[in-house]
Write a structure and sequence with these properties.
The chain has 390 residues and is an alpha+beta fold. It is built from 11 helices and 8 strands. Helix 4 packs antiparallel against helix 5. The two termini are 41 Å apart.
Length: 390
Amino acid sequence: MSSTIESAEHKALRTAVAALGQRYGREYLARVAREGGHPEELWADAAKLGYLGVNLPEEYGGGGGGIAELAIVLEELGAAGCPLLMMVVSPAICGTVIARFGTDEQKRTWLPGLADGSLTMAFGITEPDAGSNSHRITTTARRDGDGWILTGRKVFISGVDIADATLIVGRTETASSSGAAPALKPCLFIVPRDTPGFGRSVIDMELQAAEKQFELTLDEVRLPSSALVGDEDAGLLQLFAGLNPERIMTAAFAIGMGRYALARAVEYAKTRQVWKEPIGAHQAVAHPLAQAHIELELARLMTQKAAALYDAGDDMGAGEAANMAKYAAGEACVRAVDQSVHTLGGNGLTREYGLGSLITASRVARIAPVSREMILNFVSHQTLGLPKSY
């Protein structure tokens, strides 16, 4: 069946997850964030129902599905107003990478816990001086006997305080015979939270979210050889095995948020009366909401395509589609939120209606995990074959 037409199983999954989301909703997540807590109850319930590990192998307690199913879970929770951001990181990025490239020991150690929600893993790639240029990653890993020593810094890493470990992207030191800068050889390392030399400090964000952002320092962090995930020489393949699901899940996150905002605006426009008819009868109100709905649906189609390609093992095709999906969903989300707030007028900025804070939150999908401009660079170079400016 075409990936553009959802199967009965996917529709049933949407309905079931939506029911869970409705039990919690936007106010639950907002309260947890205000109190500085974490959505532990929702995380536990989603895990109990098998939603957190739906993409992980059945032999390790997962659902045996793919990113397509996990994206549905996140989108529907988002549409209910209570998305779980750590789903993007723990089962989607880290779980996928370990399932595809981890040793048998790593799979046994981590996958059952990631699947049932009892273990959580963060993902550390972004650095203060590298930005979107992964070739400037300076976190290095050098051999030390049978183990490794990691040194470097990371920034904007989500949920490190609640994660049992962080999957750190470093590079092995490879001296060049020509004297040029070392070639990029990215490697992935599992760093448990309490490892000596592994420090964290919270970043003060305008964004109000349960998941905090951290700057990490790795000061001569000593790791056993078993901390390396996969093959030391297959770094880029392993890295993008995690980054493509991250983009697909970010798209699902954005679509869910956009749907939530749009539903609130439509509900308001149907009942809010200023003159004779509800304001939703006026085309100046109705048409922008219809346009926002169309853009969200189009973004979902590309997200479904990206997930289908990834789950089918087409990493190259999935890379292109995942970037396009993330771009389309980020733009659609921002416009849907903006129009929804505008539809409510002053009420759109009150805490009662819960839309004002989404103005900031919706920008996340434009910025992270890669900016829309870098996606346009990717498409112009990789898809259109245009020359690079850098």
